[in-house]
Amino acid sequence: MTLRPRKRSWLYLSVFVGVLAVAIGSGYLFFRKDDTTGYITAPVSRLDVESTVLATGTIEAKNLVSVGAQVSGQIKSLKVALGEEVQAGQLVAEIDSLPQQNTLRTKLAALAVVRAQKQSKEATLYQTELVFRRQQEMLRGEAGSREDYEAAEAQLKVTRAEITALEAQIEQARIAVDTAQLDLNYTRITSPIDGVVVAIVTKEGQTVNANQSAPTIIKVARLETMTVKVEISEADVVRVKPGQRVYFTILGEPDTRYHTSLLAIEPAPESVAGESGTAAGSSSSSSAGTAIYYMGILDVPNPDAKLRISMTTQVNIVLAEAKNALTIPSAALGDPNKDGSYTVSVEQEKGKLEKRQVQIGINNNVQAVVLKGLREGENVVIGDKPAVSSTTMPRSRGPMLRLH
Questions:
Q1: pTM greater than 0.85 (yes/no)
Q2: Which residues, 6+ apart, have CB-to-CB distance to 29 below 8 Å?
Q3: What CATH number is associated with residue 363?
Q4: Could you tell me if residue 398 is inside a domain?
Q5: Residue 106 sits in the same domain as residue 166
Q6: For 67-71, 83-87, 284-288, which range has the lowest pLDDT when averaged over its residues?
Q7: 264, 241 in Cβ contact below 8 A?
Q8: CA dist list (Å): 332 to 37, 49, 343, 383
Q9: Which end of the chain is more exposed for a tag (fewer CB within 10 A), N or C?
């Protein structure tokens, strides 16, 4: 049956009035004025409280060595793979050694030449000694002239000096041979430490030039102990010192704490390393608008190898702590009094408050340790209840009713 337009309009109007009545009733139930107390309380309870400095850190290997080439040449072969464990002295790479072998042969030949020259000069020395002794005897018997004697003596001294010079040349040639042998040994690159290959920088077949810089072949690190470098702001660095307890978490395990202690604090920020040759005035002006951080150093065991190089850490440096201490929320405290105490409001019974002076210990802006003035189980005021308007109605986002 089709409704007439007038009846349909009355039907829509009746529905609208019903919905409006329900909305008003609901608003009365949920938004009526609260006739209870106008404040919020929290109990005095016992908790473990600590005051910490929060900082960000980066994990590094405690011992990371760049194994490089000390001679130039083509990488003939790599003997290790990424992630492989190596021992100190183990062969990790070889450079084509033919140039070094040829240089060694040349230096050995030069040494042999100088030695032969010395042998020849020693034979000459023997001859000049005979001539000198003969002239010496003839001069005694007045059978020879002094001029011949002096000439023989001079020739003897020259020959001996030449042998001394050849001995020095032999020493130089020996040093050259040792250097050539050393360069030949450098073509066999070995690991200086026990560790794990964490990076392979140079590929097999690549030519390295040690004359310009020391090229890195691989990087080896010891991972059983890791070092965390922590950025401590200049506002917090005055409150921390070596030996303080530290714990940190990593992104992959935010609920697992790694505990250690602060090993050291670097005396200057890392930016100082890049200020060589910069005047003090210009360096201070350039860093005026930049945050300054000092690096804290801490070591942590890594027996299961979960900690990896370059991981980011959230570090807490513990300044002070209290176990099972009587605490209240820090929101219950206002400004301190002149004697260092605080005034808090303590609930005696529903709606009745008492002002009380309390002594506070550790305060980390979340919980404060109560030293004097409160008992466990008492309730303190931490704030006012938010005001709720009795006339505010929630906006309806439902379909609008049209009257026809």
A1: no
A2: none
A3: 2.40.420.20
A4: no
A5: yes
A6: 284-288
A7: no
A8: 17, 16, 9, 7
A9: N
Mean pLDDT across the chain, nearest whole number? 84
Please give the pLDDT value at position 245.
Answer: 96
Q: Same structural domain for residues 167 and 104?
A: yes
Q: Quickly state the pLDDT bin for 288 (edges 50, 70, 90).
A: low
Cα 324 from Cα 113, distance rounded (Å): 87
> pLDDT tens across 98-122, in order?
999 999 999 999 999 999 999 999 9
* Contact of 28 with 36, CB cutoff 8 Å: no
User: Exposure pattern of 46-84 as b/e (b: 16+ CB <10 Å)?
Assistant: eeebbbbbebebebbbbebbebbbebbbebeebbbeeee
Q: Are 201 and 75 within 8 A, CB to CB?
A: no
